[in-house]
């Protein structure tokens, strides 16, 4: 490959191997050769630098005189050279014609820069590789931004782990005094004939139940988030499960002056679910609907099927959900101002538990509302099962 001087695209080039001239004439437009952002390096077949163009000196700190004739691997950091990444880059370009490679490189002053690079192999008519063209761009700013985001993500994950541990501990600590309180309340109720004491004990027992459910939710959400919950899946007719849920909440709805309505089809809707876990999810939805629906309103528990999915819907004429809250409704501790006003002291845990439980069943849950004061609808989708026990395809 004898060298000679040449002129390509109006530029004066020093002596180069003759078989690299077509590359220069077709792939090195004037714009790129004068670029302040893109560095362009031309290599021979052995990986030695024969041209150092564009922003190469600004990017790497070396002048063309310093770099021409040196192997391109010298701009790689030592660990990458030891692993052979410089040779691998050329091997991939030879095999597939092109190699995209983002990695750390080292400048003349010893500083590391994150470079987004692309190398292409140049071939003569016979197919033999006669050289390579490598285009590089400094993306250190982007890499630093990504590293910061990754660091923040790790911090968030660590914080989430601490939160789970706190919730689990809090749930245990809350449960410990509840049993003695319940026992003491029962003793007072049995040994005291004063009607006022009976009423007070009734209130205490009611609040103990509230605290018990809260403690259970705290422990459950930490287990669910850590994926430590195992399901005992059995085949059930969704209609039967919803009748049980309806019966469990009929009295509380009546006491609040609400009409709790169950609407199911005539035929069975088979699903594979963990019965206690499903009841926990369904109960959270129905209890929320009752809690946030004003006296005189209605709450519907519905069952239907759409294609392969078996659906449970809980709809109410209650407070509704604001557009701002709707996208984060199922996040832990997410609560709207209207919900806090209607039921002070809640922690916004129940819907997060619902989402995790339904997700474990291979289903999904979504919420809809036309806005504050316009009621809400929660839809649980579960994979349906046909009469032969096969999942419905659609």
From TrEMBL:
Q: Which PROSITE patterns does the record associate with it? A: HIS_KIN, PAC, PAS
- Taken from the record, one Pfam family name reads HATPase_c
> Which GO CC annotations does the UniProt entry carry?
plasma membrane
Which segments carry the region annotation Disordered?
Answer: 366-394
Q: What is its main location?
A: membrane
**Highest taxon of the lineage:** Bacteria
**Topology relative to the membrane:** Multi-pass membrane protein
Residue ranges of the Histidine kinase domain? Answer: 169-386
Q: Which residues form the PAC domain?
A: 99-151
Record-annotated PAS domain positions: 24-95
Q: Where in the cell is it found?
A: Cell inner membrane
Assigned EC number: 2.7.13.3
Q: What keywords would UniProt list here?
A: Kinase, Phosphoprotein, Transferase
Would you tell me the protein name for this molecule? histidine kinase
